[in-house]
Records
---
Amino acid sequence: MNFITTVLAFLLALGPLIIFHELGHYAVARLCGVKVLRFSVGMGKVVWSRRFGKDQTEWAVSMLPLGGYVKMLDSRDPDAAPLSPDDEEREFTRKSVWRRIAIVAAGPIANFILAIVVFAGLFMHGIAEPGTRVRAMGETTAAWQAGLRGGDQIVAVNGEPIGAWSELNWEVISSALDKQDVRLEVERPSQGRVGFELPAASFDGLDPDADLLGAVGISVARPAPVLGKILPGGAAESAGLESGDLVVSVDGKPILDGIAFIEALRPAGGRTVQVDVNRGGRLFTIPVTPERDPQSGFGRIKAEVALAPELVTVSSGPLEAVGRAVRKTWDTSAMTVKMIGKMIMGDVSLKNVTGPITIADYAGQTARMGVVTFLIFIASISISLGVMNLLPIPVLDGGLLLYYSLEVLTGRPLPERIAEFAQRAGVAMLVMLMALAVFNDVARLL
C-alpha cells in the first residue's frame, strides 16, 4: 500500500510541475507569435495525442514520465517541411532575441510563480508546526557552551524574527553555509530577552543536509512527562503507576520530558528503578521493573507518555502572505544555488545530489503526513525544478539563455558548429548527473 501511495504521490507532484513549466513556454510562445507544433508531457515515444486549435497543435503524452517539452516551428529542424510565407513569420528563430529569451525563461519563471502561489495560500491558511522553545541540552554541546538553556524560546536569529521551528532551522542552515556566527535572541522566563552567539566553528565539518541544530545540541522542547493511558499487563500497572502521574525523576536523575523518561527506561530492562512521581500534589517513590523487549533489548513499562512538541500556527493576511511567499521562494532558490556552488567547490558532499527515487520517497512520506506537508513539498520541488533549469548547461533552459545572452552581447547568434558541440557536452553532463543521482538514491535505499 505504501508503494502505491508513493508512486501516486510522485506522479501527482511531478506531473503538474512539468505541465506548469511547459505551459509557461507554451503561453509566452503564443504571445510572441510563434507556432507551437506539439505540447508533450513526458519524453520519448508518443503514446497518446490529440490535435486542437487553429494551428492543430498536438497535445501528447510520451512514454518516459520524467520531463516534457514544447516543440515550436523551427527551420533548423531536419524534419521541418518547407515553410509557407505565413509560417515563416511564426518560426522561432525569426523572432527577436529578446522574444526568444522570454519564451525560454517562461518555463522556470512559471515554476517560481507556482511556488509563490502555493506558499501564499499556505501562509494565509496557517501552518501548524513546532514552536521555538528548546529542550534541555547536554553541558558538552555547543548550544550549552554558548549560553542556551532548556526552556529558552528563540525569538530571533541574526536579527530576523522567527516564530516556528522551520524558520529557526532555515536561518541556522543559511548561516552555516555562509560560515557566519549565529546570533540568537531568546525569551527566558527568569530573565526576559537575552542574546547568545553560536560561533561559526560550531558547524565545521557538519553536513548541511543533516540535522545541524541537533548536532550543536538544539532540539525542540517536549511536553512534561505526564503519564497517559496505562496499558493492562505491563510493568507500569504492576508497579502501581497511574494515568496523570507526573514523572519527576528516575533513580534520582531529574526527568524533564517524555523523551528523557523513555531514555532513562531503555537501559533498565529487567532491572528495578526508583521512579519519583507527583500525583495530585503529593510526591511518591515507586519501584518499577521495566520489561526487556526481546527484539530491541530496551526496557518498557507499557504506559503512554506525551511526546509531541507544542505546535504554533502562523498565519498571515493576503498581502503579507504574498510577501512571505516571495521571500521564501527567493531564499530557497538562493539556498539551492549556494548548495550547488558548495558541491562544485567540494565543501558539500556529492551525496546530496538526489534523483527520482529519493523524490518519489519524499513525495510518499509527505503525502502520508497530510495535505499541507505535501503542498510544501510540491512548492519546494517546483523551486528546485526552476533553479535546475536555469543552470547554464546546454540542452537546459539556462544553456539556451546563455546562448541568447551571448547573441545580445555580440550581435550575432552562436555559430551552429559550436552550438552542436555544446549540446553534446550538455547531454553528456546531464547523463553523468543523472547517473550520480540514481547511484545516491540506490545507496540510500541500501
---
Amino acid sequence: MTTTAEQSDRIDPLVWRISGVVVLGSIMSILDTTIVNVALATLSRDLHATISQIQWVVTGYMLALAAVIPVTGWAARRFGAKQVYLTSLVLFTLGSALCGLATSSSELILFRVLQGLGGGMILPIGQLIMADAAGPKRMGRVMSIVAVPAMLAPILGPTIGGLIVQNTSWRWIFYVNVPIGVIAVASGIRMLPTVQREQTDRLDYLGLALMALGLPLLTYGLAEIGSTGSFTAAKVVYPIVIGVVLIAAFVVHALRIPHPLLQLRLYRRATFSSASVAMFCLGAALFGAMILLPLYWQEIRHESVVHTGLLTSPQGLGMALIMPISGKLTDRLGGGPLALVGVVITAAATIPFGMIGAHTSIAFLFGAMFVRGIGIGLAFMPAMTAAFAALERDELSHATPQLNVLQRVGGSIGTAILAVVLQRALVGVDSLSGAAAAYGTAFWWSAGLAAVAIVPCIVLLVAERNARRRQSAAAASSNEPALAEAAAA
C-alpha cells in the first residue's frame, strides 16, 4: 500500500477508507473535551456536588489525556499502531458507558479518567496511521480533508451538549459515544492495515514518570488559575513550579539517553522545531479564544447555550471551506508560506473583537469569525504537514505524540491567560458596556497570542526554502557525471 502511494499522486480509495475510520474515532475524543462543559451546572445539581468539585469531571479528563499522550510513540512501535488504536477505542467506549452509569461525582470523575486514558491515544495514533498510509506527497491533502470534522468538533461540542441536556438526560452526553465507539472498533478491525511491530528498547520508565507527573501538575496549575483568578495562589504556583521542574528534568534526561520516551532530538531540525512552535502558539490562540466567544454570547448578549453554539459556527465554516484548498496548496508550495499567511489573517481577524461592544452587529461578528476561521485553516494544518514532511517515515511515531502534547499544552496556556485577563478586566465593572469592554481587552490578548506565531512561521518558511535549495543542489551534483559522459559522447 505504501509503495503504491509513493509511486502516484493519486490517493488510493483505501487511504480514504482508513482515514474515515480514524476520523470516526478521533471525533469522539475531540468532542468530549468540550461537550461536557455546558452540562457542569446540571451535573452539580443532580450529583449533589459543588461546582469546584464537579469541575474535576473536565480537569480529570484533561490530566489523563496529558499523561498518556507521551506513551503513544513507544506503544505504537512496540505493539503496532492498529492494536494500540483499537485498544484506545475500547477503553474510551467503556469509559463513556461507565460515565453514563455513574451515581456520584467521585464515580464520574474516576470513569472520566479512564475515558481520558483511551481518548489521549486516539488522535495521535490516528494521525500516525493516516500519515503512514498517505505518504509524504499526499499528506497535505489527506490531513486537510480528515481534519475538517476534527476542527469542527470543538465548536459543535457546546451546541450538541446543550441540545442533549436541554432535551434528554445528561447521561446521554456519554451514552452517545457507545454506538459510535462500537462502529469505530468494528470498522477498524476490518479496514485498518496491520503494521508490523518493531523491535523496541525498554520503556523509558523514568521519562514516563517525569512526564506523567509534570504535565498533569502543570495542567492542574493552569486550570486552577481560572478558579482562583490569581497567578500567585498556592494552588497555582506550587503545581506549575513543580510541573515545570519535572518537565525540565525530563528534557535533560531525554537528551542524555539513546531511546527516550519522546525523541526531543527531532527539534534540532529547523523545519520541525519552527513548525512545532507555530502549532503551540496557534493552539494557544485557537483554544484560548474559544472560551471568550461563548461567554460573550451568554453573559453580554444573554443567548441560550444552544444559540451560543450556533453563533460560533461561522468560524468552523471558514475552516471547513478552506482546509481542502489549503491541503492542495501545501502539497505544491510547502507548509511555510501558507502557515505564515494564515497566522497573519488569524491575528488581523481577531482585532475587530478587541473593539467589541454590548450591541455590536451580529452580521459584523459573523464576518470576522468566518475570516478568522479561514486564517486558522490556512495556518494549522500546513504547519502540521510541514512538521511531518521534515521527517523520515520511521520518525513519524516519535513526532505525532510530541505535536499533540504541544497543541494541548498550548491550548491550556492560552485558555489560562485569557481567563485571567478577562477576570481581572471584569473587576469593578458595573455596567453592560464596561463588561463588553473587558471582553475586548481579552480579545486583544488573543490577537497577540496569534501574532506571536508569526515569528516561528517566518523561520519555518526560511527553513523550507533552505531545504529545497539543498535538495536541488544535491540533485544537480548527482546529474553532473551523467552530463559529462553525454558531452564526451
---
Amino acid sequence: MTTTRTTALVAAEPALAPLLERLLRLAEAGLPAMFRPNEEDFVFTRAAVAPPLPGAEAVLEARGESVRYAAITVLGARLLPEERQRPLFGGRTAAEYTGVLVERLPRVTNLGDAALVAWAAADTRHPKLEDALARLAALDDLDEGAPQPRYTVEAAWVLSALAAARGLTDATGVERRLRTARDRLLRARIGSSPLFPHATGPGLLPWYRSHVGCFADQTYPLQALARAHVSGEHTGGDETALAAADACGARICELQGEGGQWWWHYDARDGSVVEGYPVYSVHQHAMAPTALLDLAEAGGKDHGAAVRLGLRWMTEVPELRARGTGAGEPESLIRDELGVTWRKVFRGDPRKAVRAARGVGSRLVPGLRLEPLERYFPPVAVDRECRPYEFGWMLHAWLGSVDPSAPQEEKA
C-alpha cells in the first residue's frame, strides 16, 4: 500500500516496511469480522474467551455495537479503492455506508458519535452532510457564545468535523461554529502547559481527576488544531492553532518511553507523566501516527523518529520480553490468524489501583510517583480484545493526508 506516508517511513527506516505492510493488511482482513450485516453496524469489540483446553487457540466473541467505531472505520476505509471497501461494509462503499450512519443520527445523543459521523460525511462528500451538521449543532451549544464544558476528545472531534466540512457548505454556520470550537479547545489548557486535561472546563470530573489528561486527550486536539489550520489556508491559516498543536506534539514526544511507549495519563498542569500504563496498541500503530503525521503535513515539526519508535514497540514489546517466564518467546500482540491486534499491555492491578493512586497523589503533590507500585504491579498483562476503531485509525494514519481534498496516490 503505497502512499506518501508509507513511502517516507520506508525511506527513513526500511526495516519497518514489512511490519507496516503486515499491519495494514491485517486491518483490511480483520474489519469484515467486526461488521454485522443483519444489523448493518460494527461491534464494540471482539474479545477472547477462555480456551476450552490448555494450549488451545483463543476463541473470539463479538460484543456490543458502536456508532463511533463505525464512523472511525469509514474515515480510514474510505482511503481504500472502492472494490476493497465493500467487503468491510457488507457490500457498500464507505460513502454509501456513511448514508446509513447519517440516517440514524436522529437517534444519536452522544456528541462524540455525532461529530464523527459528521466528519465521515464531510470526508466522503456525502450529499446529506448538512443533515449531519444540523444534528451536531443540535447536540452542542456552539452558537451560544460560551459553550458548556465538554470532554476534550469529543470537543476535538467536533473541531475536526467542522474543519472537514469547511468550504463544502455554510448552511449551518460552519465558520462561526468552527471558531467557537477552536477557542473552546485552546482555552482548555491549564496555565502555560502544552497538554490538555480530560475536559474543557469544570463540572464534568471530580476534583482529584480534573488535572489528568489521557493520551487521547492529547492526540485528538493536536490533530484537530492542525486540521483547522490547514482547512483555513485559503484565508492565511491559523498559526495560533498550529502552534498549540506543535507544542502538544513536542511534549508528548519528549515524554515517550525508551521502548517507544506512548504513555497513558499526564498531568495537564505541568506536562508530566502521571501513570504510563496501559500502553495501547492503537496508540502505537495508529493514533500517534495519524496525529503527528497530520501535524508535520500542516507545517508543524516532523516527529517521524518518534512515530517509527512507537511502531517498533508493536513487535518488540519490552514489557513482555522482560517478563522472564522461561516459556520461550513472549506472546505476540499481532495475531494474523485471528485478524486482530491485542488491545493493550497493562498492570493487571485490581480496580486500576495504580492509576487511581497516582492520580490522587499527583493532585496533592505534583510529580509524586509512588515508585513501590512498580514492583507490586509490573505491566506484564495482555488485554486480549480488539475494536474496530483501532483498524479504522490505522488506515487513516497511513493511507491519508491532513487535507482530505488532496488527491490520494494509488494504493496497491
---
Amino acid sequence: MRRAAALSALLLAALLLAGCGAPQDAPAAEPTPEPLCAHDWRDGVCSLCGEVCVHDWAEGVCRVCGMVCAHDWAEGVCRVCGMVCAHDWDEGVCTICGRVCTHEDHDRETRECRVCGLTVPHRYVNCVCSCGARPQYVEDLKLYPEEVLVNEEGPGQIDSYVYNRLTGEIVEGDRKRNHFERVVLIYTPCGYDPEGAYDVVFLTNASNTNSAAWLTKGYSFDSQHCHFTGKKLLDGMIAQGYCEPTIFVSIEYRRNASPAKTAEMYERELRRDVLPFLIENYATYASLDENRRVIPAREHFAHTGASFGSTMSWELMTRCADLFSYWGLYSGRLSEGVPIVRAIDEAAAQYPLDFVYVGGGKGEPASGTFEKYTAGIIEDCVSLEEGKNIAFLNLDHAIHWHPTWFVLLHNSMQVFFRNRYEPLG
C-alpha cells in the first residue's frame, strides 16, 4: 500500500511540473519557397512559365521584356504604349502614323504651316482664320482667290420659281409663259436646315439680263481662270469661310423708265408677294403677321443691285430701310434731280443703315461718275460716314460685267451681317 501511494505522489508531482513552465516543443519550420522564374521573354510572353508581361513602356519599348510596340496610331498617339508620333510630314500627311495636318498653326503672311511646312490657304470661320488673319478685300479682278474658284465641296441647291407680277402667284418652274412672269431663283447653302434661321441676300440684275445672270450663267475672270457660275462661287465662299451659310435670292424686276418708278413697283411686289413667299417657305429670321404682312428682321437681310439694278436700289433704300439694313450698290449711279440725300437721311433716322458697300470697275466708262456720286452722298448725308457704315471701292482690271459685281459681292459679304469694316491700306 505504501508503495502504491508513493507512485501516485510521484506521478502527481510530474504533472504539476509539466504545467508550471516545463519546456515546450519548438514550432515546425516553414517550407522553403520555390525559386522565381528567370523569364525568357518572347513577344511579351515568358517561354518558361507562360507569364504575360505587364508592359512598362518607354518611348515605345517595354522596360521589362524589351518588346517593341507595333503602334496602333490614333490622331498621332499610340493607343497601346501612349507614344506620341514624331511625324514625318509629306504634303501635309505623316508617313509614320497617317495623321493629316490641320494647318491651324500657320504664318498669316507666308501661309506656311508651322507644323508640317506646307503652304496652305487661309481657312476662315466667320471671316477669321485660325492663324488670326482676316480675308483681304479683293482690289484686282485678276487676283481673286483661286481656292474659291476651284472649290467644289459642299454644293448648295438652287430652287427655281415663276412669279406672276399681276396675280402674285409663285409656282415652281423655270419657264415664263407670258411677259408678266419672271423667274426667281433661291439658293440655299450646303447643309441647309429648314428648322434653322439664315441671313438673306437679294441679288437684282442689270438691264437686259435676268435672274440666271447671278446664279446659273457661266463666266470667267480671264483666260487663266476656270469658268464658274455664281452658284459655284457662293459654294466656294461658304466652304472657305469667306461668308457664313446664307440664302441668296436672285430676282428680276420690270424696268419702268425712271429708277424711282421701277423702285416703287419693285417694292410693292416685294412686300406683297415675294417676301411673304420666301418667309413661308424658307428658314429666315423674319416672320408674317395674321394678314401676311412682313414682320422684318432687317439686321439679317441685305439687298444688292448691279448696273441699273444698283441705281434702282439707291431709290429702294429710301423705301425699304425697314426691310434691309445692309446694301450693296455696284456700278450704278444716282438718278439726276432726285432729292435722294434727304430721303436717305429721313429713312435712316428711323431705321439706321448698318452698312452700304458701293463699288465699280476702273475700266468702266462711268467709273469716275460712280466715285463722284458716292463721294457726294458721303459728304451730304448725315446718316452715312465713310469707313463706318459706307465704303467705296474701284476694282483694277474690272469692266461693266458680272465678274466685277461678283468680286464686289465677295467683299460685301465680309461686312454684311457683321457690321465690321476694316478699310484697305
